[in-house]
From TrEMBL:
CDD domains: Tryp_SPc
Database matches in Gene3D superfamilies: Trypsin-like serine proteases
Keywords tagged on the record: Disulfide bond, Hydrolase, Protease, Serine protease, Signal
Name this protein carries in UniProt: Peptidase S1 domain-containing protein
One Pfam family recorded for the sequence: Trypsin
Signal peptide interval: 1-26
Length: 276
């Protein structure tokens, strides 16, 4: 028996980029996907977390504060951000709640090389990073602070923190096609090295699809990112190394992937736009 698997960028509910993969051998049934299998974050625990709302106040992506007027997110989230707003300083899902910590998006910046790369496995977004400029500055306090970004791999003497635990946080659904989380979720995941990522992801579809220039992955089998977590940060030792980009569905069937912020072309884009 074979099943159909969707490869989707994990943008939320009104806009979903998806392609249907060719049939692959059915995998063993996994437990109910309950971020999946995460726990509720404490209020103010991740002061860099923001949520992106459309012009109709519908939640569609996560993001991180990197400056008082600057939000880092996924490139495919930027595509859906026109007329939207950013909500900061709260663990509560702000959808249709009209919270006073919302700031309109002034301008969006998509990586100039952003594109979907067609492979046998599906359409994979490359250079999947974007920047949102806000209409006015976020007033920093205990619940709203910027995250520090990891340096480019070519400009850093520190090795990549492979096999160390990092934290993924987001308001994404807790099971495939479920409802967005009412409160911010978190989960600790180990950052895998490139060989492990390629093996775990590529073996699933029997095609080379993981690209270590563009992506990182964490050991989130049965756990981790799902719809709505796109743009959310993956942080190791206080530094953001990744932005949730794409994953196979159902959620947790393989490790999810992040845009690799230490790749020079990604880090330089952020610096050129924001000065950060």
């Amino acid at each position: 028996m074979a099943n159909m698997i969707k490869l989707v960028s994990t943008i939320g509910f009104s806009v979903i980029f998806a392609v249907i993969l060719n049939e692959v051998t059915a995998k063993p049934q996994h437990p109910p996907l309950k971020i999946v299998n995460g726990t509720t974050a404490k209020d103010g625990e991740f002061p860099y977390m923001v949520q992106l709302l459309s012009d109709s106040d519908a939640f569609f992506c996560g993001g991180s504060i990197i400056g008082d007027r600057w939000i880092l997110t996924a490139g495919h989230c930027v595509e859906a951000s026109e007329g939207g707003k950013v909500v900061y300083g709260t663990n509560l899902l702000a959808e249709e709640k009209h919270l006073d910590t919302a700031i309109k998006i002034k301008k969006s910046y998509l990586h100039p090389l952003f594109a979907y790369n067609y492979t046998y496995g599906g359409d994979i977004p490359y250079f999947d990073v974007g920047i949102l400029e806000l209409e006015h500055a976020i007033p920093f306090d205990a619940k709203a602070q910027p995250v520090q970004l990891a340096n480019s791999e070519t400009n850093s003497s520190a090795p990549m923190p492979f096999h160390q635990n990092g934290t993924l946080s987001g308001w994404g659904v807790n099971e495939t096609f479920g409802a967005a989380a009412e409160f911010l979720q978190k989960i600790n995941l180990q950052l895998l090295n490139d060989t492990e990522c390629a093996r775990k992801i590529d073996d699933y579809v029997s095609v080379d699809i993981f690209n270590s220039t563009h992506n990182l992955c964490s050991d989130d089998y049965y756990n981790g990112e799902c719809f709505g977590d796109s743009g959310s940060p993956f942080v190791v030792n206080g530094l953001q190394y990744g932005v949730v980009s794409w994953s196979f569905k159902p959620c947790g069937i393989t490790p999810g992937t992040y845009s690799r912020l230490t790749t020079p072309a990604y880090r330089e884009f952020i610096r050129n736009v924001t000065g950060i």
